[in-house]
Amino acid sequence: QVQLVESGGGLVQAGGSLRLSCAASGSAFSINRMGWFRQAPGRERDWVASITWSTGTTYYKDSVKDRFTISRDNAKNTVTLQMHSLISEDTAVYYCAARIHADGGYEYWGQGTQVTVSS
């Protein structure tokens, strides 16, 4: 079992920055990949970015790859999403997720943190 706790959401003006963090506990040593997802009101949950735990290889949704940076700290079992140049379309609840198996889905989810970008 892996427990995930997000922090760092809030209200920011368009063009601003926010930093989200996710702390993993429990069987964090078994994590293969961690990711950030978001869900805007009335929309489905959407993948944003992910990082392979062992190699640090990163992956991004096209609409964020020049503005967001995902990173991890293996020693602290944390993953961070640094967001710059925020736009109103980035407004959503952001979720941290972890998967154990390289060919599996994301099995563990955090509770979510609200990000609101005001225009």
Per-chain topology:
Elements: E1 2-7, E2 10-13, E3 18-26, E4 33-39, E5 46-52, E6 58-60, E7 68-73, E8 78-83, E9 92-99, E10 108-109, E11 113-118
Parallel strand pairs: 2-11
Antiparallel strand pairs: 1-3, 3-8, 4-5, 4-9, 5-6, 7-8, 9-10, 9-11
In short:
The protein contains no helices and 11 strands.
Give an account of the 3D structure:
With 119 residues, the chain is an all-beta fold. 0% of the residues lie in helices and 54% in strands. The protein contains no helices and 11 strands. A hairpin with an 8-residue loop joins strand 9 and strand 10. It is globular, with a radius of gyration of 13 Å.
Outline: globular
**Cα separation of the termini:** 40 Å
Q: DSSP strand (E) fraction?
A: over 45%
Helix content: under 10%
The H/E string reads EEEEEEEEEEE
Rg over CA atoms, rounded to whole Å, is: 13 Å
* Whole-number mean pLDDT: 95
- Uncertain stretches: none
Structural class: mainly beta
Major sheet size, sense and barrel closure: 7 strands, mixed
Number of strands: 11
